[in-house]
Amino acid sequence: MSAPASMPDWYQQGLPHIWLPYSQMKTASAPLAAQNTHGSHITLTDERTLVDGVAAWWTACHGYNHPYIRQAVTKQLETMPHVMFGGMVHEPALRLASRLCALLPGDLERVFFTDSGSVAVEVAMKMAIQYRLNKGEHQRTKMLAFRGGYHGDTLATMAVCDPEEGMHHLYGSALAEHVIAPLPVDETSTRAFMDLLARYAHELAGIIMEPLVQGAGGMLFHAPQVLRTVRAAADQHDVLLILDEIFTGFGRTGTLFACEQAGITPDIITLSKALTGGTMALAATVARRHVFEAFWADNPDHALMHGPTFMANPLACACANASLDLFEAEPRLEQVAAVNALMTEALEPCRTLPGVRDVRTLGAIGVVELDRIANPDALRQQLIAHGAWIRPFRNIVYLTPAFTISEQDLLFLCRTIHTVLAA
What is the chain's percent helix, strand, coil content, to nearest 5? Predict the structure, then answer.
């Protein structure tokens, strides 16, 4: 990967020293140089403007540079950018924790803040395992996860991603072994899931799953009934249920949280991505009362021994509080419904194109699934050439736009997908 001669000095000097995500640095196309963002637009240093179809990896639900969030960051920056959260608390974090617990279902009432989704899932796994250890059940240290699932890139989370189809299969021999089951979407897969659960329940600390959508696994959708099936099975075998709502939380599937559509409450839930409106890094792991009570003891060894340096960063918490204000003051879920209706109609013509296997939408998620994509990087470059920032992966071209995207921009994205795939 080399820098084009026309790029600015900072690009030329810095590119030889950067390691980009999910990229074979030797063969990948040179990255774009972003200069500024606004709404659903990214302006590059060469003055081209792209319409962002993926909202900064599914985070910028209110669009880029929302003035209300920017104002909240500025105000917090002037008073307290950061303070350690060990033995000390502050208003933005405590106000955010109480607001999250009021929005979440059931008795999800204890919030542990981290600074990334992967770490939030690691904390959830540690909670589930130590929940058992604190009860003296030392054999229950495994997780049950699902094929097609993705929960992060850190070492523990890789172990609960799909072991064969996932991007982490190369690490198989280095990862802890967990139980990987088929998602119970029909009679056959439900029977297989229930058999595995019954066989390994005495070793399991928890079940972890993405509700309604397996995101990085290929934007694979499943019905709310699947969540109810898993919740009932977890209760039957006394296994904690962890829902990874890092992607699905905060309106992406059409409700504030995906689990609402099934009417269930997980024992632990993880949140990130749109938590701050895509402005700063922040994540949260929220536990129900009975989970927290297993750690409430005179024994210091029963405490949760985890503490990221920047956990509950005041700037990030201020962003998240401002984002929740916007969900209260502006019609975000109605906007999600409008985005869904438009994408459903505008992506449908892709269904008749050669090589297209399926077209599907859920909330503010639109997917065109192909038989295969031979070169996702080349396809991405074609989309960029048309003025769209869309990142195909696996065998899908997908949209996860800001909820505030204009009808004109959304139609442009849908039509660009059709144009490029038809070419």
Answer: 40, 20, 40
pLDDT tens digits for 314-333? 999 999 999 999 999 999 99
Q: CB pairs under 8 A, 24+ apart, for 359-364? A: 360/219, 360/221, 362/212, 362/213, 362/221, 362/253, 362/254, 363/251, 363/252, 363/253, 363/254, 363/255, 363/336, 363/339, 364/251, 364/252, 364/254, 364/336, 364/339, 364/340, 364/400, 364/401, 364/403
**Looking at the DSSP assignment, which residues form a beta bridge with residue 393?**
396
Q: Check: CB of residue 212 under 8 Å from CB of residue 222.
A: yes
Q: How confident is the model at residue 4 (pLDDT cuts 50, 70, 90)?
A: confident
Q: Considering the chain, what percentage of its residues have pLDDT values greater than 90?
A: 96
Query: How many Cβ atoms sit within 10 Å of the Cβ of residue 419?
Result: 13
Where helices occur in 211-300 by DSSP H, the ranges are 224-236, 289-293
Choosing from 52, 131, 267, 273, the catalytic residue is 273
150 catalytic per annotation: yes
Q: Is 64 a catalytic residue?
A: no
Output the pLDDT for position 204.
98
How many whole angstroms separate alpha carbon 419 and alpha carbon 410? 14
- Residue tagged active-site, from 150, 162, 398, 409: 150
Spatial separation of the C-alpha atoms in residues 76 and 74, rounded to whole Å: 6
Task: Find the distance separating the first CA and the last CA of the chain, reported in whole Å.
Answer: 27
- Predicted confidence at residue 129, as pLDDT, reads 98
DSSP string over 396-413: EEEE---TT--HHHHHHH
β-strands 365-370, 396-399 pairing: antiparallel
Q: How remote is the C-alpha of 151 from its chain's centroid?
A: 8
For 283, the token pair is: 């994540």
273 is catalytic: yes
Residue 165 has pLDDT above 80, yes or no: no
Look over the chain and give the mean of its residue pLDDT values, rounded to a whole number: 97
Q: What is the pLDDT of residues 11-61, one digit of tens each?
A: 999 999 999 999 999 999 999 999 999 999 999 999 999 999 999 999 999
Element (H, E) at 360: strand 356-362
Is a pLDDT exceeding 70 seen at residue 166? no
**Active-site residue, selected from the candidate residues 162, 244, 267, 409:** 244
142 is catalytic: no
Residue 337 has pLDDT above 70, yes or no: yes
